[in-house]
Design brief:
4 copies of one chain form a homotetramer. By secondary structure, the first copy, chain A, is mainly alpha-helical. Chain A contains 8 helices and no strands. In chain A, helix 1 crosses helix 4 and helix 2 runs antiparallel to helix 4. Chains in contact: A-B, A-C, A-D, B-C, B-D, C-D.
Chain lengths: 125, 125, 125, 125
């Protein structure tokens, strides 16, 4: 069995053992996932970009834990919605390749950030 | 090679092809990840919990795309910080098992939600 | 002087007294604001909608603190970007009135949630 | 009447006119608020801190709209939970003054960021 599928089974048992499954609606899991994503952001909020590339062992350990929490809730949600994450990612990478053609977006920060501007990204071109 | 490692290599190539690596500091990637997590929340914000368990094919497809985006930025960050996600998750599950012992947290919503109250969760017991 | 402007002045002094102004770039403040918004979400993530309408005094007190933190970072950002929040909100309400005309969106949850679907909301109609 | 109270009344009418009040449980409003906070983060995610201090008129206009959206949902939540934001902020500023005494936190980025480390901030000192 795939490693991610193994983890999904483990997490299901973890929730079952604690009677937590009842709280794990997709709506609630999306909230919990975004809370964990913000705890990850919190690790970086007052660091410079350069500092974020040179974390101390303690900082890296805290960051790893938050990354794991995001992954855990993502896999819980995947279980609930019957989603195979590897397949979903592969499909999305194909979509992104069409959305961001190399010759259109390659290059300067300016081009990149403009391409990502709210107005543009939301399909309001 | 592990499937997640394969995807990480694919995403690195995707970024390299577009000269985007320069924007992918851990700080920035944590921001992008949390933005995608919120796009996932957006799919569920006006749905009831029950509706969130019964998505239409269109809704599920939108949700899957957002889940994939979260996974993609998480793997980008894992590449940048040299983190193995499967190992990080396994370690975190062990920590969580100690933090939430079955006999202490099993049972009613009340106990569970109290256990998760800000004051308690932050280790202020 | 307007109450919000008074608070902005107080917060500026608070940051100056602690030499924190150097960390308060708009980028960093947006991160801190979103982290506080997630701490607010955390208060509600395992509650039902009904429970969220009937908070205990302790829960309400925790929620109030998180709401205050969101307001504080929003006002810090407003100071840094020279934005008058009352004006900005009044302008946005006018925009929203055009975007969501009563006769088009009034009524059932179904209409409302469809109107808020990612594809539609992003202006891709 | 206070300006914020005026806006709260306006927003209540806006929701009533559209029959949206039924969707505005505190739980759902916290989700919507955090989604708007992330749309604000999205404006800054690929900018350097310096660029975030020198926004173009178009960028500033987009940022202002997102700030207004955050303020709007915060005031909707304040209406639903009967919270006076000015009072809540004033109380929180007093708490923060005790939590972050000038002589303890003033000074270097290092001290500041350490003080804000997850472990410390969560009251685990």
């Amino acid at each position: 069995m795939d490693k991610l599928e193994q983890i999904k089974a483990q997490l299901q048992k973890f929730a079952d053992d604690r009677d937590w499954d009842q709280f794990h609606s997709p709506k609630n899991l999306s909230m919990a996932l975004s809370v964990e994503a913000s705890e990850l952001v919190e690790c970086f909020q007052w660091l410079t970009e350069e500092q974020s590339q040179n974390l101390s062992p303690e900082q890296l350990s805290a960051v790893k834990d938050e990354m794991a929490d995001v992954q855990i809730y993502l896999l819980r949600l995947a279980t609930k919605l019957n989603v195979n994450m590897v397949e979903a990612v592969n499909q999305k990478i194909k979509k992104n390749a069409l959305k961001y053609p190399i010759d259109k977006v390659k290059g300067s920060a300016k081009k990149y950030t403009e391409y990502e501007q709210p107005g543009l990204k939301k399909g309001e071109e």
